[in-house]
Amino acid sequence: MAIVGAGPRGAGILERLGASAPELLSGGVGTGLDVHLIDPYPAGAGRIWRHDQSPLLAMNSMAADVTMYTDDSVVCEGPIRPGPSFWDWAQELQAHGDPDQLGPELGAELRAVTASTFPSRRLQSAYLGWVLDEVIAGMPPGVRVHVHRTRAVGLAEDGPTQTVFLEDGPPLRVDTVVLASGHLDATPTAEELALVDRAAELGLLYLPPEQTTDTDLSVIRPGQTAIVRGMGLAFIDLVVLLFEGRGGRFEPVDADGDTLRYVPSGAEPHLVVGSPRGAPYHSKPHYELRGGRPPLPRFFGPAEVDRLIAAGEPVELRAQVWPLMAKEIAWGWYHELFLGHPDRVRLHWDEFAARYSELGWDTPAMAELITAAVPDTLDRIDFTALDRPLDGVHAPDLAALQPLVRERIAEDLRQHVDPAHTPHLGAFVAMLSVYGSLGRLIGAGTLSARSQAFDVRWWQSFFNAVASGPPGFRVRQLLALSRAGFVEFLGAGMWVDVADGTFRAGSATLEGAPPVTATALVDARLPDASAARTEDPLLASLMRSGAAGEAVIVDDDGTVLRNTGLIRVRPSDGALVDASGTVHPRRFAVGPHTAVKVAGAFTRPGMNAQSLRYNDAVARAVLRSLPVARESASAA
Questions:
Q1: Contact 18, 190 (CB under 8 A)
Q2: Cα 519 from chain centroid?
Q3: Which of 22, 171, 409, 605 is 20–30 Å from 119 (CA)?
Q4: Do residues 51 and 45 make contact, with C-beta atoms less than 8 angstroms apart?
Q5: Domain FAD-dependent urate hydroxylase HpyO/Asp monooxygenase CreE-like FAD/NAD(P)-binding spans what residues (predicted)?
């Protein structure tokens, strides 16, 4: 078989293949199994986590929150095979290994790593490479793994045989193929191409969406003003590379290092940044739970999902599912508040939990219970503030807006690094549980077409903003750049156009203010998913032949509501679905380029993570697709 994509997703599938092969292949492994890993980037790390990137770029997860292995919390068909988390691996190297084997820079970093450190992506690359080596070494007898450092450029079939064509090397003839390529580049949209042409015509600079680490940022000149559209993780990378990456540095203003001062290098541009929310993603929590992990799922788990599926009627996410999701997320919040900070509540947890369980989320009785039990409004979960952090902020001009936005960002940062506010982590943990339950509901096709087209996008955006934010130190750096005048915030409801020979931008927050003008515009985000516009040659060939198709959401009256741009797969196991709707028995796909959303290629330990469960389901389906497995099943 072949796995196209040898990053953490492909490595995770390989680990699960090794775990289940003795059970599912005849005679343990029968006559043997050859697995071909294909990737032009380093196996294990892949493109996103490869060593060959700026040493300044960091993970947005703490060392203790990263693992590639199943543990006793994971509910799956395949065997549980625990392995070291990033932090376990680092501790072992610190205590019994030679960190300098990673090179002097990474050796020094590893010696300084703690459980709460946000490691560099280069150090994560070393962990992922080590994991893959361990997975390969631990394959059962008869399973042979071959790594091909090249690109897969085509896929054809001759009867049951799949032929994978390589950019460098002879074709591979295999029985089954898994497409695990991760985020795929796409050519610009028609609107983006028009902006490219218009910018060139006017002598302006436009950088369309792209993986920030692969963008040539030298075209942004020192002193040039650039409007930046997007404030997610791609924006954080942009800021790192344009400021610290050009020789600037940050110095602590106080002994605690809570406030930073930016010392410029002289090569800095001037960024004016906005987005629909107008604020960066919420910082990752920098503390541990005090009250223990909340019992999850509680209100939105298998029983509730089964009930909604069994009803047989289209379900509206915002009206019918969100109340369950919100109650679950708030359960995580209040579990941590009551058990971790009992001095700040007026009821015992058992009494509160019993009454909470009986009430609907968005009801007067629930509001009364929370108000009576939680006296400080800051201790009450506020979904509006989490989703729209600049609600209520308005300013007459850009200068007046800056301290107002900085104040909101600084307060949000404080709550995510101060252990007095660990309920944020309780909600975060619950959101991960909710993500997996909703994924199952989506996979079953239970949501209405409009909810699939619009509400799921809202949820994904909300989840990213709350659960996928940067480390706190990055937010401190952003605030320092803002105070120094190198980064200015446009506010929420950003808009951009081209007029009078320049880019212009404004926002709903600055309604009535004159627009900001600039000679450069950067779309700081990944390209929108589009299998039809993909630059991946293998997937492009499958799209041209109809062997793969995009998931298109159609309303009951036949109106196309949205083309997701994601390739269609069978939700239960990732089997590839062609343009006619036929499921291929020997082709599978997993990752962000598919219509099945899974939160990350690696995960926190002890979370019954959706990604590990899905890897297991895909791997077992792949093994069952092999001839030796089919022969075994027939014999049985």
A1: no
A2: 32
A3: 409
A4: yes
A5: 2-183
